[in-house]
Design brief:
mainly alpha; DNA polymerase, domain 1; hpI Integrase, Chain A; two-stranded antiparallel sheet; about 50% helix; elongated
Length: about 290
């Protein structure tokens, strides 16, 4: 078996593909391992068996010295650990020298939740843009992730339900669509360009609207609405917090937003005052 660094990277990518990992995951891991192998080759290493724990630590220190964020370094550690689990699992190496690498401490910011005044201002700012207005409404009323929203197909939407797909474009869950979202989508469909694309949200030229397009457009409307220090994901946070504040069952909200663990949803309880809930009806409430 060829155990040169260049070959190992190719074998690792093939392994991830065979495991059915999402294309974005394979791409990210591939870039991280390529960066690692380039560093190792530059420092005189040619074969995976020559690599020692000190080499991996030196690589990570180089990243930190070059101003990589703790989050970026942590992601690259994940890639390295996955690589070495593959190497040991395939019998290419006998020892996992990456097993004891520690992740850097990352300060997790408390989720940002928009106030009623803020999300109403955002609606007002985007009202003339039917496409972005519909996108914002879906974020606020369904709590979908930006990647999930970009993948919505025309066939995935009915007047009262939205099919949400995972990174492999397979159906992950179904989410209720309320009147506000339904009406916003109808307005968008009235101006949606003619296109052969099966995606719901498309550009003026009929191509699927990409995640970066969505993020850029909404960031512009955040600015127009005077909303500071806010990201697209905060619209999802707002949906979750609002539903919990209105007594929607924790397990139900967790399932709707696609959290793998209810404990992830529980963290949002610290952001709401359940004593001030306006509704005692345990259903999803419209923002």
């Amino acid at each position: 078996m060829d155990t040169s660094l260049a070959s190992i990277k190719d074998q690792f990518i093939q392994f991830l593909d065979n495991k059915g990992r999402a294309a974005a995951t394979v791409l990210a891991y591939g870039k991280d391992v390529d960066q690692l192998t380039q560093y190792l080759v530059k420092n005189g290493r040619k074969n995976i068996s020559e690599i020692e724990g000190a080499d991996l630590h030196a690589f990570l220190k180089t990243l930190q010295d070059n101003s990589y964020t703790q989050k970026s370094v942590s992601r690259k550690i994940n890639s390295i650990k996955t690589l070495y689990r593959f190497l040991v699992g395939e019998g290419i190496l006998q020892q996992n020298i990456a097993a004891n690498i520690k992740h850097p401490h990352i300060d997790h910011k408390e989720p940002r939740v928009l106030s009623k005044m803020e999300y109403r201002a955002l609606r007002d700012a985007s009202r003339e843009d039917e496409r972005i207005s519909a996108i914002i409404e879906l974020f606020l009323q369904t709590g979908v992730r930006i990647g999930e929203l970009a993948q919505i197909r025309l066939e995935d939407v009915t007047s009262n339900e939205l099919v949400v797909r995972n990174a492999r474009d397979k159906i992950d869950r179904k989410v209720p669509v309320n009147l506000s979202s339904s009406e916003s989508l109808k307005r968008y469909m009235g101006v949606r360009p003619q296109s052969e694309s099966e995606r719901l949200f498309i550009t003026k030229t009929g191509r699927p609207l990409l995640v970066r397009n969505i993020r850029t457009a909404i960031d512009r409307y955040f600015k127009e609405a005077g909303i500071k220090e806010c990201t697209v994901n905060d619209l999802r946070n707002t949906f979750i917090a609002h539903q919990l504040a209105n007594n929607a069952p924790l397990e139900y909200v967790s399932a709707i937003v696609g959290h793998k663990r209810v404990s992830t949803t529980e963290k949002y309880l610290d952001l709401v005052d359940l004593g001030d809930a306006k509704s005692k009806d345990p259903k999803l409430q419209e923002l």
